[in-house]
Amino acid sequence: MNITLETIDKIMQDCTLCPRRCHADRISEKPGFCGQGAEITAARAALHFWEEPCISGSCGSGTVFFSGCSLQCVYCQNRQIALGRTGRSISLERLAEIFLELQEKKAANINLVTAGHFLPQVAYSLELAKQLGLTLPVVYNTGSYEEVSSLRMLEGLVDIYLPDLKYRSPELSAKYSNAPDYFEKAAAAIEEMYRQTGSLVFDPETGLMKRGVIVRHLLLPGQSRDSKQILRYLHNTYKNDISVSIMNQFTPLADANLPQELNRRVTTEEYDKILSFGERIGIEQGYYQEGETAAESFIPPFDCEGI
């Protein structure tokens, strides 16, 4: 799908990109639920080494962190940018230049983090960058609260999808993300992502991922039952045609005003039990985290580097 400037303006004048469908006129600088107007705002563009090994590799993923978010989880570790507190406005042409600059730095790929509320602008910039020589695989890194119709703008532009599947329970998604329909929307979004990319493809020499879907699930304190339901759903639906990344890096940030039950880290016992469950039901294509990953030091500085 070729995105034109006229298409972008039309979408931004009555924004229904995400399931919030807030109908904001973002052209008139009335921000949507995501907190953003029509102009792209980003907070960092740099090599990032903390993704899954097949994404970061040894050279780093060329990651662009966009400001704002349509989900606004109460525990978000990137809340500084999710709430739109930091970032710099850039043009469509500048974003295409950033992609090419990351390619010049020998990035393994271009990694778009929380770009859904700028999706038509990003699609336009990707098309422009590809015309100017961008050849790297493109990763779309999302919380998955997406509309299928919006994701179709990315068909042919994105090679790898890196979606979250945060909750199965509508009660949990309502409480922590104000999105009781999260699972319904995220499951449909992941199905569309899989339709676009198909099964996993890796470079046999480097081990880097070239195409496919990795679904991330962040274990929350005390929510092992929900996590098991998510893992069972993913395996029953996709078998090992996708990869599942089970994460223990939940970090209770001091300024987040979290519910009491989230004011702790996930225990080793909780995490080990979920890993054992995943192995028991037959998940073979997957990733897990080792060591002290639940730490604020793993959150990158959103200092507008590379923007």
Short description:
With 307 residues, the protein is of the alpha/beta class.
Detailed description of the structure:
There is one protein chain. With 307 residues, this protein is α/β, with parallel strands linked by helices. The chain is built from 10 helices and 10 strands. The protein has helices at residues 5-13, 53-56, 79-82, 92-104, 119-131, 148-151, 170-177, 182-197, 224-238, 268-281, and strands at 40-48, 61-66, 88-90, 110-113, 138-142, 160-163, 201-202, 209-218, 243-247, 286-288. Strands 1, 2, 3, 4, 5, 6, 7, 8, 9 and 10 form a 10-stranded mixed beta sheet that branches. α10 (268-281) links the parallel β9 and β10. α4 packs across α5 (119-131) and α9 (224-238) runs parallel beside α10 (268-281). The longest helix has 16 residues, at 182-197. The protein is globular. 46% of the residues are buried. The model has no long low-confidence stretch (mean pLDDT 94).
